[in-house]
Design brief:
about 20% strand, single chain, globular, Uridine Diphospho-n-acetylenolpyruvylglucosamine Reductase, domain 2, 8-stranded antiparallel sheet, 18 strands, alpha+beta, Uridine Diphospho-n-acetylenolpyruvylglucosamine Reductase, domain 3, Vanillyl-alcohol Oxidase, Chain A, domain 3, 6-stranded antiparallel sheet
Length: about 475
């Protein structure tokens, strides 16, 4: 592949100002919030579907891989190629493709381009007193629709409505040859995107694929009226053992819009960790919302003690501002490692995570690595997520990827040891989750997919990948493909 020739052809499509080949930009786009990889040969920023289509065709025809990138807040090597496996690649930054194309109150849909943020979607639909059924992750000020649908995400509305993928009615996808595939009822001639299950669910095929099957350029989401009633409550528990049955009960009830359980930082290795549970309930009227909360209070019973609901109240009143920085309030690195479990499997997951932390307790204490643990309802599933905190080597992305509210401490002589220990703990988390059959969001290149999925399923996926991307140039290596 002749890199200079490819870049010259891309310049005729995009203009030189939207192609970046400088050392600093290539270095930043070769990193996510945890992993570092091989720098791409260029970063391109198209502003239309036509530009993406032509750019992808130019790259793949020349033998260059295309790595799609949204807000860039991956921590699973979603767009980062490990050096040993890297092929010449172009990073496709989708953030200029950021328009809200249509809010359709009659059909209860919103259609947006893939670089649009969740906050922009919320603002556009709120003008009609509507919102997406799952209306964003906590990082929705920066996270894009395309990135979220490639990796999946959850939070606002998730206890009731599931994940981002559950809100999608159809997508427009650029295939490896530059052709544009439309899914759902939007693929019918003379129709529009309002019904996902029009024949085989081709929409689902392109969701959670980490960009391996196609580059998402637009999506249509289901809308719902913004409820008139809203209330919140918080509870504290004597231990995680007491919290877990409570959060399972709330998840099974379907009464909450959000349900989040969190432990203190650092996470006590003893059972008495005093975790808290935070819920938001909604309803067509305030009376309905209050009735939902009263039912949840009855479900929780005497195990939980009600406290001031400052946390859920603040989160709902500032939906995308409570996570402002990839660094924590002390300027430390923080990294998440999650698993998605059935409601009945939460206790086993908790014990597994706790055992990993116990196995590494000596190193964590010596290197001043702390941890906490959170639980979040996602429809009929539960995400369990330990978070590690340490003074490590912050990257450009930690300061530029979001609005950093604090500076990281300068790395000391133990920074490399801390980073290595965190990597070891994360790998141990994943090994434990493999043993108990966890699912994941944001598979990327970190969580195993191909190696832990039944061979017949992986074979089918490989055949689909071969059909859509015969040279394997769309984000090669993700999902273990």
């Amino acid at each position: 592949m002749e890199a200079e020739k490819v870049i010259a052809e891309l310049e005729t499509i995009l203009g030189s100002e939207h192609i970046h080949v400088d050392h600093d930009t290539l270095g930043q786009f070769a990193e996510d919030l945890f992993f570092s990889g091989s720098p791409p040969i260029a970063v391109i920023a198209p502003a239309s579907v036509e530009e993406i289509s032509k750019s992808v065709h130019t790259c793949t025809t020349a033998g260059a891989a295309v790595l799609p990138r949204g807000g860039g807040l991956s921590y699973t090597a979603g767009y980062v190629q490990p050096g040993e496996d890297a092929v010449p690649a172009i990073v496709l930054d989708t953030r200029r493709l950021d328009r809200v194309l249509e809010v359709n109150p009659d059909n209860m849909t919103v259609t947006v381009e893939s670089g649009c943020t969740w906050e922009a979607v919320m603002n556009a639909t709120a003008e009609h007193s509507l919102r997406a059924t799952m209306f964003g992750p906590s990082t929705g000020r920066y996270s894009t629709i395309g990135g979220s649908l490639s990796n999946n995400c959850m939070f606002f509305g998730s206890a009731k409505s599931g994940t981002a993928a559950d809100a999608v009615l159809g997508v427009d996808v650029v295939a490896a040859d530059g052709s544009i595939v439309v899914t759902g009822s939007g693929a019918i001639q003379n129709s529009s995107p309002y019904f996902r299950n029009n024949g085989p669910d081709l929409t689902g095929l392109f969701l959670n694929d980490a960009g391996a099957l196609g580059i998402k350029v637009a999506a249509t989401l289901r809308l719902e009226p913004i409820p008139n009633g809203q209330t919140a409550a918080s509870f504290t528990f004597a231990s995680f053992a007491a919290l877990i049955p409570a959060i399972q009960a709330v998840g099974r009830s379907g009464l909450a819009s959000e349900c989040l359980g969190v432990g203190p930082a650092p996470l006590g290795l003893a059972a008495e960790a005093n975790p808290s549970l935070h819920v938001v309930c909604e309803g067509w009227t305030q009376e309905i919302a209050d009735a939902h909360l009263a039912a949840i209070i009855e479900l929780i019973g005497d195990e939980g003690t009600q406290i001031d609901p400052a946390v859920p109240t603040f989160i709902r009143s500032n939906p995308f501002s409570f996570v402002q920085s990839p660094l924590d309030a002390k300027g430390r690195m923080q990294i998440w490692t999650h698993g998605v479990f059935p409601l009945g499997g939460v206790k086993e997951a908790y014990v597994g995570f706790l055992n990993v932390l116990k196995d590494h307790a000596t190193d964590m204490e010596a290197l001043e690595i702390e941890a906490t643990l959170s639980f979040a309802c996602a429809g009929q599933a539960m995400m369990v997520e330990p978070v590690l905190y340490w003074h490590g080597r912050a990257k450009n992305l930690h300061h530029n990827g979001m609005a950093a509210v604090t500076d990281s401490a300068p790395p000391d002589e133990n920074a490399d040891q801390r980073d290595a220990c965190v990597r070891k703990i994360r790998d141990a988390f994943v090994s434990m989750m493999d043993e108990i059959g966890a699912a994941h969001m944001q598979y990327g290149r970190f969580y195993p997919y191909a190696s832990v999925t039944k061979k017949e399923t992986v074979s089918l996926l490989r055949n689909i990948k071969q059909s859509l991307d015969p040279e394997g140039l769309l984000n090669p290596g993700v999902l273990g493909l």
